[in-house]
C-alpha cells in the first residue's frame, strides 16, 4: 500500500488504456488480476488482524480480484469467506473463482464478518447497484468493524465522484494501479475513507496528480525582504478581508507586504501602509498583487480591478473581483494570474460547470489563460496547459468567513517568492490546509495565519 500524496490521477478511460498497453506488451488479463488480488490480500493481512474476513465479489474483473485475494488469504491461514452478487462474466474472473475453490454464499443472505471487503464493482460503474445488492452491501458494511473497498466503493462514478445510489462509507479504499478522480472529488471522496494505492505493474502517467507537500525552505543567509518577495494587497470596501490576506502573506513567507489603501486600525506594525496610487502600483519590486478580497462590486471596485489588470504584475484574483472580471479580459493579459473561486464565484465568472470538477477547472484555466484554484472540500488546481492537482479533503472548519482571503494571501506569498504560478497555487493550498489541521476545531480565519509560522518551523 502506497500513500497517495503526489501520485498520478487517472480517469477510468486512462486506467483502461494503461491496462490495455500492459496487455499489448505481453501481460495477460489474468496476470493483472493476480497482481491486483495479491496486493489486496497483502493489504488486508496488514489491516485485518486475526479477524474473520468476508469478501464480496461482483461479476466482473473487480470480483475476480476479490476471488484471487480470498484464495491468497486462505493460503496464508486466515479465516475467509466469499459472497457473490452474481456468477463471473469474464474468462479471467471465472478462472479466479475456480482458483478460490471454496464455498460462495449469495450476497443477499451472507452472514456479516468483522472485516468486509467490497470487490463488487469498483471503477467504471455507470449506474446504481440494484436494490438487493445495495441493501446487502449497506448491511454488511454497517455490521463490520473494518470495511475495505477494492478500487472504489461500489456505486461511485469514477471520474466525477458522483454517488450513483446509496453508497456506504468504508474505512479504507485500495486504489488499483492509480488514484482515480473519485478518490478526491466530492461527494464520493467522503465514502472512500483512507485511500492507498496497490501497484499492479502498469504505467500510470498523467497530467493530473494528488497535491503533495511543497518544499518550504528557510531564507538563505543573504536573503532580504525583497528577495523573499513583495506582495501588494489592494484594499477594498471591506477592510478586514484585505487585512486577512495581507497578514497571511506575511506569515506565509513574504518579505515585504504592502497594503494599498487607507490605514486599517489594529493592523500589524510590520504591514506597510501605502496610498493606492500609480506610484505604489508601478513599484517594480512587487512580485504579486492581491485584488478582490472585500473589494465590493460597485463602480469604484470595478475601477480598482481595472487598475490591477492594467499592471504588469502577477495577480492573485479572489472574491468580489471574480464577479467583475470576464474571461476575455483575463486572457488579454500577459502577466501570470491565479484565480481562486469558490463554487459561486466560479459560476459567476465561467458559468455553471459541466462534467467533473476537474474538467471544469481545466476548461476555466484554458479560457482565462490563468491558473484556476477551484476551491471547496475537493479543491482542484488547473493550469492552462492541462496540468492539474487535486487536493485531499481539508478541514471542514474551513467553511467560515475569511478563510478564502487567507488562502489568497498565502498563494500570493508563494508567487512573489519566485514559484511558478501553478506551483505557487499548490503550495498555498497545501499550507492553508495544513494550518487548518493544526488549528483544530472551531477556529476563525484570523487564527490560520499564525499557524503557518509553525509549519515553517
What does this molecule look like?
It is a single chain. The protein folds into 2 domains: 209 residues, Rossmann fold (3-Layer(aba) Sandwich); 227 residues, Ribokinase (UDP-N-acetylmuramoyl-L-alanine:D-glutamate ligase, 3-Layer(aba) Sandwich). It has a 10-stranded mixed β-sheet with strand order 9-18-17-16-15-14-13-10-11-12, with helices on both faces. The chain starts with a strand and ends with a helix. It is 39% helix and 16% strand. The protein is elongated, with a radius of gyration of 25 Å. The protein has 457 residues and is α/β, with parallel strands linked by helices. The model has no long low-confidence stretch (mean pLDDT 95). In the N-terminal section; belongs to the NnrE/AIBP family. In the C-terminal section; belongs to the NnrD/CARKD family. It catalyses: (6R)-NADHX = (6S)-NADHX; (6R)-NADPHX = (6S)-NADPHX; (6S)-NADHX + ADP = AMP + phosphate + NADH + H(+); (6S)-NADPHX + ADP = AMP + phosphate + NADPH + H(+). Its EC number is 4.2.1.136, 5.1.99.6.
Amino acid at each position: 500500500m502506497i500513500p497517495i500524496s503526489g501520485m498520478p490521477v487517472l480517469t477510468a478511460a486512462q486506467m483502461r488504456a494503461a491496462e490495455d498497453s500492459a496487455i499489448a506488451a505481453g501481460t495477460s488479463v489474468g496476470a493483472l488480476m493476480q497482481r491486483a488480488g495479491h496486493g489486496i490480500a497483502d493489504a488486508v493481512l496488514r489491516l485485518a488482524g486475526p479477524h474473520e474476513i468476508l469478501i464480496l465479489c461482483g461479476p466482473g474483473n473487480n470480483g475476480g480480484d476479490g476471488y484471487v485475494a480470498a484464495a491468497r488469504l486462505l493460503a496464508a491461514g486466515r479465516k475467509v469467506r466469499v459472497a457473490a452478487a452474481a456468477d463471473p462474466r469474464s474468462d479471467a474472473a471465472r478462472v479466479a473463482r475456480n482458483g478460490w475453490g471454496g464455498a460462495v454464499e449469495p450476497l443477499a443472505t451472507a452472514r456479516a464478518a468483522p472485516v468486509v471487503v467490497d470487490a463488487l464493482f469498483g471503477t467504471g460503474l455507470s449506474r446504481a447497484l440494484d436494490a438487493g445488492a445495495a441493501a446487502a452491501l449497506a448491511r454488511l458494511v454497517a455490521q463490520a468493524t473494518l470495511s475495505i473497498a477494492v478500487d472504489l466503493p461500489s456505486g461511485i462514478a469514477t471520474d466525477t465522484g458522483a454517488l450513483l445510489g446509496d453508497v456506504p462509507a468504508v474505512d479504507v479504499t485500495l486504489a488499483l494501479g492509480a488514484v482515480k478522480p473519485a478518490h478526491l472529488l466530492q461527494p464520493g471522496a467522503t465514502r472512500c475513507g483512507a485511500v492507498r494505492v496497490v501497484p499492479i505493474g502498469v504505467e500510470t502517467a498523467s497530467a493530473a496528480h494528488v497535491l503533495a507537500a511543497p518544499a518550504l525552505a528557510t531564507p538563505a543567509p543573504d536573503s532580504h525582504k525583497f528577495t523573499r518577495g513583495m506582495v501588494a494587497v489592494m484594499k477594498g470596501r471591506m477592510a478586514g478581508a484585505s487585512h486577512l490576506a495581507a497578514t497571511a502573506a506575511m506569515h506565509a513567507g513574504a518579505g515585504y507586504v504592502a497594503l494599498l489603501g487607507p490605514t486599517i486600525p489594529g493592523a500589524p506594525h510590520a504591514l506597510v501602509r501605502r496610498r493606492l496610487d500609480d506610484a505604489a502600483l508601478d513599484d517594480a519590486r512587487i512580485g504579486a498583487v492581491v485584488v478582490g478580497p472585500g473589494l465590493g462590486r460597485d463602480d469604484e471596485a470595478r475601477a480598482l480591478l481595472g487598475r490591477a489588470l492594467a499592471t504588469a504584475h502577477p495577480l492573485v484574483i479572489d472574491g468580489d473581483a471574480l464577479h467583475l472580471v470576464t474571461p476575455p479580459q483575463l486572457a488579454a493579459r500577459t502577466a501570470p494570474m491565479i484565480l481562486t473561486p469558490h463554487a459561486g464565484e466560479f459560476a459567476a465568472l465561467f458559468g455553471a460547470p459541466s462534467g467533473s470538477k476537474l474538467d471544469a477547472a481545466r476548461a476555466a484555466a484554458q479560457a482565462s489563460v490563468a491558473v484556476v484554484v477551484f476551491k471547496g472540500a475537493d479543491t482542484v488546481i488547473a493550469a492552462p496547459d492541462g496540468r492539474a492537482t487535486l487536493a485531499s479533503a481539508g478541514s471542514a472548519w474551513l467553511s467560515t468567513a475569511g478563510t478564502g482571503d487567507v488562502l489568497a494571501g498565502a498563494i500570493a506569498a508563494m508567487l512573489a517568492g519566485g514559484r511558478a504560478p501553478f506551483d505557487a497555487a499548490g503550495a498555498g493550498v497545501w499550507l492553508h490546509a495544513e494550518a487548518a489541521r493544526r488549528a483544530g476545531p472551531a477556529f476563525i480565519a484570523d487564527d490560520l495565519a499564525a499557524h503557518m509560522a509553525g509549519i515553517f518551523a
